[in-house]
Amino acid sequence: MAYVRLRTLANRFEADLLTRALDQAGVDYFLRTYEDTAYDGLFTAREGWGAIWVAEADQKWAAGIIAQFEQAYGVDLGSD
Predict the structure, then answer these.
(1) How far apart are CA 58 and CA 39, in angstroms?
(2) Helix (H, G, I), strand (E, B) or coil at 16
(3) Measured in whole angstroms, how far is the alpha carbon of residue 63 from the centre of its chain?
């Protein structure tokens, strides 16, 4: 199964909010963080805190869930 990058994340709080919404909808995803204590945040400055990757077949569905989340809570979490 192929996965595609859905969203770059700014921090852990954003990751928790969005992954919870995807969990509740039953979306197939994984969370990749770029934290690395050995390099003291070198990769987080360039790549962001992390990224959510979703199954290619679920990409539009997952993007819609995040859009609904942003609309419901009046936030703009940015996009990739």
Answers:
(1) 33
(2) helix
(3) 10
Instruction: Give the HSE-up count for residue 34: Cα atoms under 13 Å, Cβ half-sphere.
Output: 16
Paired tokens of 15 = 């990751």
Strand pairing category for 3-9 and 29-33 = unpaired
Q: Are 6 and 46 in contact (CB under 8 A)?
A: no
Q: DSSP letter at 45?
A: H
pLDDT at 29: 95
Report which secondary-structure segment, H or E, holds 79: none
Q: Which residues of 15-34 are buried (b: 16+ CB within 10 A; e: fewer)?
A: bebbbebbeeeebebeeeeb
Residuewise pLDDT in 10s, the chain (80 residues): 799 999 988 888 989 999 999 999 999 999 998 766 555 555 555 567 899 999 999 999 999 999 988 888 776 666 55
